[in-house]
Amino acid sequence: MSVIHVQNVTFSYPSHFDPIFDDVSFQINTDWKLGFIGRNGRGKTTFFHLLQGKFEYSGRIDASVEFNYFPYEVQDKSKWTHVVLEEICPQAEDWEFLREIAYLGVDAEVMYRPFETLSNGEQTKVLLAALFLNEGQFLLIDEPTNHLDTEARKLVSTYLKKKKGFILISHDRHFLDGCVDHILSINRSDIEVQSGNYSSWKLNFDRQQEHEQATNDRLQKDIGRLKQSSKRSAGWSNQVEASKNGTTNAGSKLDKGFVGHKAAKMMKRAKNIEARQQKAINEKSKLLKNIETVDSLKLEPLAYKNKDVIQVTDVSVLYDHQVVNEPISFTIQQGDRILLDGKNGSGKSSVLKLILGEAIQYKGTVTKGSNLRISYVQQDTSGLKGMLSDFIEKHRLDETLFKSILRKMDFERDQFEKEISNYSGGQKKKLLIAKSLCEKAHLYIWDEPLNFIDIYSRTQIEALLEEFCPTMLFVEHDKSFQQSIATKVISM
């Protein structure tokens, strides 16, 4: 066991006006299983790069462990899997590799196949297994769940729970709860470490915010009351000052000593009120620095002329004329939010594309209603590039509405002037969701919409869908999202 000390670290990219980290200090134990959370673009992956010494920064990071980063970049994916794993962890024996991948539900036969023939989920699992066999290393795991189906996430979460010595970036609340014992959170104004899983952290965070909000409201009222008192005292003081050379209403001369005493008393009272007011203002300024505001989103789904929107009957997807899945049948009716569930490679995305009208080999029938308007969020964001203005023009979006949605999803205004290819994975996904929210449609088809999306935006999207109840067909492996949104589940 050792401790990683982060002391007064400040870092900013040359192209950024504001620093990503500003005089941050904290320490973590290398035996901890840390969940690393925060808004998209706050610097989670950047912090991993700092730990690995990839960027220059001011301050100090002291660590007696070697850092290893996941996802590990495999240079030659045509090599057999066991060769790739031996290169990652040369001191491990074959039986150790086989033991670890067995824990993750991976068949031993993948060891003797080219790495490139493994599914994304299988690649994720075998690389994690190899990296954890490197003794004395502290693993930096960057969003491993994006290529994992629901069952695989459960397996990996159980696997990680038995390990120690890692920081895990993930926005999957259910996944985090299953495998971490500490939370490292990047907040608006600082970074903090807290013992427990995500749910306990969120409970404490919400309580803190509620307490600060209540204190803020009380101080706001005190400041308003003191301002009124200050005005009254100033008025009384002015009246006394004006009466120094005056007379009483009865016409008798005033006692100058009495007037001077009263003026001094009023001045002291005014200064006391001013001091109390300033103290309240100072206390108020210390509050709500980490509050995460989540604005409500809106959607305008269209009502379709018929109750039934789409019928899928005995559909099997074919790859190279080979059947991928058992035949499935379902009907999408207005108001349904149907989750298409299944393992990686079971044909879920292909079924979505099939309904969209893409050229997919299949058996069975798909019947769509006439003049059906569909809004689609694709899974892959790698092709997104160019300027935001070009994206808006290409998709004929209402610029004001589109940018307003992005702002509500925590986009800063300076992001609007950046090249889209420089956006984080979560920001790219938000771009596609914002586009879909601008589109009035009868049916919304979303393919893994939450990949890379931060926790706050996930709950924001959940609230939107629960309020406006659009007709949906979606694929998503976030268990919490599934339980909140799906009205029906179709298993493949």
Automatic annotation (TrEMBL):
Q: Name one GO molecular function term.
A: ATP binding
What name does this protein carry?
Answer: ABC transporter ATP-binding protein
Q: Which domain of life is it from?
A: Bacteria
* Coiled-coil residues: 263-290
Query: Which residue range or ranges hold the ABC transporter domain?
Result: 4-213, 310-492
Q: Note down the stretches annotated as region Disordered.
A: 212-255
Report whether Nucleotide-binding shows up as a keyword of the record. Answer: yes
Give the compositionally biased regions (Basic and acidic residues): 212-225
Show the PANTHER family listed in the entry. Answer: ABC TRANSPORTER ATP-BINDING SUBUNIT, DRUG RESISTANCE ABC TRANSPORTER,ATP-BINDING PROTEIN
Compositionally biased region (Polar residues):
231-251
Q: Which CDD domains match?
A: ABCF_EF-3
UniProt keywords (A-Z) are: ATP-binding, Coiled coil, Nucleotide-binding
